[in-house]
Design goal:
The complex is a heterodimer of chains A (164) and B (339).
Chain A lengths: L1 H10 L5 H13 L5 H29 L8 H17 L3 H8 L1 H4 L2 H14 L5 H8 L4 H22 L5
Helix pairs in contact in A: 3-4, 4-7, 7-8
Chain B lengths: L1 E2 L3 E3 L5 E9 L1 H4 L9 E2 L10 H19 L9 E6 L5 H10 L3 E3 L6 H14 L5 E8 L1 H8 L15 E2 L2 E8 L6 E6 L14 H19 L9 E4 L3 H14 L8 E4 H4 L12 E2 L1 H18 L4 E9 L3 H5 L6 E9 L6
Parallel strand pairs in B: 3-4, 5-6, 5-7, 8-13, 11-12, 11-14
Antiparallel strand pairs in B: 1-2, 2-10, 3-9, 7-9, 10-15, 14-15
Helix pairs in contact in B: 2-3, 6-7
The chains are: A mainly alpha (164), B alpha/beta (339).
């Protein structure tokens, strides 16, 4: 309790007492996010997308003579294609409102973020619109993905196997 | 003339000669679907962009309102309007098409009543014989500017609101038949420290309460003076907060009907709009269709429309600023029993 109030008072340092009281009051009126339901849905939808991925991979291995390693590229490509098609038909965002993290965490979510931004900014032209805005949302994923990979690489070098 | 601290009383009782609304498909499916003049089946209106579609909606509503008032655009003296787009492009571009002398205003979602109050003031003071007040918003253009691309799959919290796709326009005249604008209260900025752009209702509720209380104080009246006091777009969360704030401040709001346009425009149980409607068009399309019909029919005698606006920009909330909010109130009386 003490910890909580300290934390919030630090964050709300600039707010007056009335504002802080109102914030607490408004918070009590807010319908809570259905966290459990969202987690369950994300788990099942995310799992379902991975299941499709696994099936695709098996298909590439058994029918098209790919190895387990080389099959991952065409698998991801097909998932991205499905995601882009669903985005273009205006279905993906509707599924996402229901599924939450289930559709945004897998590679399909990344494809959706790029495709939706490209579609949205088509009206501003190919170069400044589509080209300039396609990574509007996906950009930060790439930036922080690279930064995280860099630090993990250093940790791996220091405590792991060293040069390889 | 000035009444109290921040209110105007319109002695000459400017008449709302004609109103018109144009909306998108989601609003057409809502409970007020039959009352809108134009319902489009497609949100793009065969245009190339959301922004152009928004401008089209506004042009349609403005033209139809002028037509319904029995006028031509050449006879309108001033056009007052605003919207949510950067540099209020929807209104400026529509005003270019209409060719009427133009006053652009920005009050975010409070623009509907801000423009109506100003139009009534011009007419009341004799600065114009006919003036048009109009506003519009578009779900997709608002999402694009303030949040994420339309097709981006992000999950919205239950406090989020759905921007109304539509436009509403009213022609205010010195004389004629129709509901009359009698009073207005211009709100001040109220900022209670809410930062979450997905919880606009909670941010705006104190502004609505502040303006309504100022209105009651300036005219020395009680809530029951009106048959209906309706806020612009507080939606479910904001409306509940406003009711509680009135109770806290000992304002007997329960003596009249207190409602919200954001709750009236959609069926919250059936439509995917989370807490309810929002946007400039929210209060405009409800007031200029449903409420005007009731006033003209004499079902409502006296109403107070309080349009609420959140004056944030995408930049300001990303920089961690709180959301300053405002509300403007306009009282409209049925012309039927005009004294």
């Amino acid at each position: 309790m003490d910890n909580d109030s300290k934390k919030s008072s630090k964050k709300d340092k600039k707010l007056t007492m009335t504002q802080q009281q109102y914030k607490q009051f408004a918070k009590s009126k807010e319908p809570p996010r259905p966290v459990l339901k969202n987690c369950a849905r994300a788990f099942f939808v995310g799992g379902f997308i991975c299941l499709i991925g696994q099936l695709l991979m098996e298909m590439f291995v058994h029918w098209f003579k790919f190895t387990e390693k080389t099959a991952s590229n065409p698998t991801v490509a097909v998932l991205i294609l499905i995601s882009v098609i669903l985005t273009c038909f205006g279905v993906y965002d509707k599924i996402a409102q229901w599924a939450g993290a289930g559709t945004s965490v897998p590679v399909t979510g990344f494809a959706n973020s790029m495709c939706s931004a490209a579609l949205e900014h088509k009206s501003e032209g190919l170069v400044l619109g589509v080209g300039g805005n396609m990574f509007k949302l996906a950009g930060s994923v790439i930036v922080f993905g690279t930064v995280a990979a860099f630090f993990i690489g250093i940790i791996h070098f220091l405590f792991g196997a060293g040069w390889k | 003339m000035l009444k109290g601290h921040q209110s105007w009383e319109f002695r000459n009782r400017p008449v709302i000669l004609g109103t018109a609304t144009a909306v998108g498909p989601e609003e057409g499916r809502g409970p007020l679907g039959d009352e809108f003049d134009i319902v489009h089946g497609d949100t793009l209106l065969e245009q190339k962009s959301w922004e152009q579609a928004e401008k089209m909606l506004l042009e349609e509503a403005a033209k139809l309102a002028i037509e319904k008032a029995g006028l031509t655009k050449e006879r309108i003296h001033f056009y007052i309007g605003g919207d949510l787009m950067n540099q209020i492009i929807s209104n400026s571009f529509a005003a270019r098409t209409l060719g009427i002398p133009y006053i652009g205003v920005f009050g975010a979602c409070s623009t509907s009543m801000e423009s109506l109050a100003l139009a009534a003031q011009l007419v009341d003071a004799g600065f114009a014989k006919y003036a048009v007040a109009a506003t519009c918003s578009h779900n997709s253009s608002a999402e694009k500017q303030f949040r994420y691309p339309t097709e981006y799959g992000s999950q919205k919290p239950p406090t989020a609101q759905y921007t109304v796709t539509g436009a509403g326009a009213a022609v205010v005249s010195r004389d004629g038949d129709g509901p009359v604008v009698t009073r207005a209260t211009i709100g001040r900025i109220v900022d209670m420290g809410i930062k979450d752009p997905f919880n606009m209702g909670a941010a705006m509720a104190p502004a609505a309460v502040d303006t309504i209380e100022a209105h009651l104080r300036d005219f020395a009246i009680q809530p029951e003076f009106y048959d209906l006091i309706v806020t612009g777009d507080l939606a479910k969360v904001g409306h509940a907060i406003a009711v509680d704030l009135f109770a806290k401040h000992n304002v007997p709001i329960e003596r009249t009907k207190f409602d919200d346009c954001g709750l009236m425009v959609y069926d919250l149980n059936k439509q995917p709009v989370q807490a309810g409607g929002s946007g400039c068009a929210c209060s405009a399309v409800v007031a200029y269709s449903h409420l005007m019909r009731k006033l003209r029919a004499g079902e409502l005698k006296r109403i107070l429309v309080v349009a609420t606006g959140a004056l944030l920009s995408p930049l300001s909330y990303q920089q961690g600023e709180t959301i300053p909010c405002i509300a403007h109130a306009v009282a409209i009386e049925s012309g039927v029993n005009a004294s």
